[in-house]
Amino acid sequence: MELAFIIEKFALVTVIFLISLGVAAYSTLAERKIAAFLQGRVGPHRAGPHGMFQPLADGGKMFFKEEIIPSESNPILFIMGPSLALLTACIGSAVIPWGQSMVIGDTVVDLQVADINVGILYIFGVVSLGVYGIMIGGWASNNKFSLMGAIRAASQNISYEIAMGLSIIALLMVTGTLSLKEIAEQQHGFWHNGWFTWNVFNQPLGFLLFIICAFAECNRTPFDLPESENELVAGYHTEYSGFKLGAFLFAEYINMFVSSAVMATLYWGGYNYPGMDLVNEALGSTWAPLVGVAVLFAKIFLFIFFFMWIRWTIPRFRYDQLMHLGWKVLIPIGIANIVLTGVWMTLKDILF
Amino acid sequence: MNLFYLIAFLSIFFSLLVIFSKNPVYSVLYLIVTFFTFTIHYILLNAQFLAIVNFIVYMGAIMVLFLFVLMLLNLNQDSEPMKSNLIKVVGVIAGMCLLVTLVGSVKALNVSDPVVLKNPDIGLVKNLGKVLFNEFLLPFEVSSLLLLSAMVGAVLLAKKDPKKA
Questions:
Q1: Helix (H/G/I), strand (E/B), else coil: A191
Q2: Does the model's ipTM exceed the 0.90 cut?
């Protein structure tokens, strides 16, 4: 029993790890293709049909490039920076429910690595750790542009974490639980008792806050101040080359994947879809969860596309605008959202 | 139990490294690892909420700010201020006083029966919330006032003096 449990979880972790790496690799291709599409270009198309092998070629290039460690840098921390960034990006996916429980023969397999009852807070913890990789890497480079990038990343992450937390509090008031599994189960189907079950229809303002903060936490445009190339050369990864640079870039794409999964699970119903009860009856409890997994991935890819769409549409903020938005706009809106949610829930209890 | 001793050893080991490392940035990094071992302690005590809050607040926010400040200061041996012997003596005396106080208070404590929690799941977020907002509502709200006053103080300090400007 114990061994079977370990094997099951190990297999699940391996599969999720491989999928997130694969998605991250192909996100790089998707990013370039979408950029090309939005700018009326062709994009990468030489490596394989429609450039399908471009990520492999990029990865090979990253591995075979010379790894330069600047002589004035701090070598241990210089290597630790990108490693930490990659590590923290990968561990966030542990609490995401990828689908309903599968029944294979007699055993029930949960498509979630760990259902801890503080799931959302775990994600927060991982997100707040994510900045260490950038900070340590930027400081250890011993370059003032790197240091500026690292410091920008730190202050930006801390500022937007607060607004993100406030947007989550309003969501928690609606759901009443911190476990991501229960939140996903609550959004079963699409329509129940005359209203949508997905949380985005109960918390539209909260979702807007959350997605803005997710952009900031992933250091994506318009919040990519830590690596803004017209001011800081390349920000925190100025001194990096070869696979250590690749690790930083890869971590950004994995972060994007994980935060898309979190957004899909928290607000857009996770693995639920309209008419899932019919599908469950038709396919049985072995294969129907896989349809849910496919739906979840479709939602995740939509969010990743949205991330890229924004990147090639909206220019970068100035730093004071970024701070102004974070502290003077998003946080008051977040608090107002909490109050509104409380008032609405009380009124609903009294009136209906 | 063995796991507890391993984690306890790691906490003490890394907190000693915090004190003995020469580079302040290394000190902060060791302190982060120390806080991480504390998080594991909380999980071993089945206090999941406390564990994750320790993880977010101490490791994720406060230590980032520490690191932030130290990186800006860029301390190294050249810029280290001279430490006079007087300060060292004062430090030793103050540390010894603290030690004596701690030893005295430990000796004064009665050895009670091993504490048995009425509810072993008290550390889970649902139970903790119920306890905080029923039995301990007043202290909880008073401590929030304390935080508010600290926040107001910080804003006041950061605000420019209108007379000087």
A1: strand
A2: no
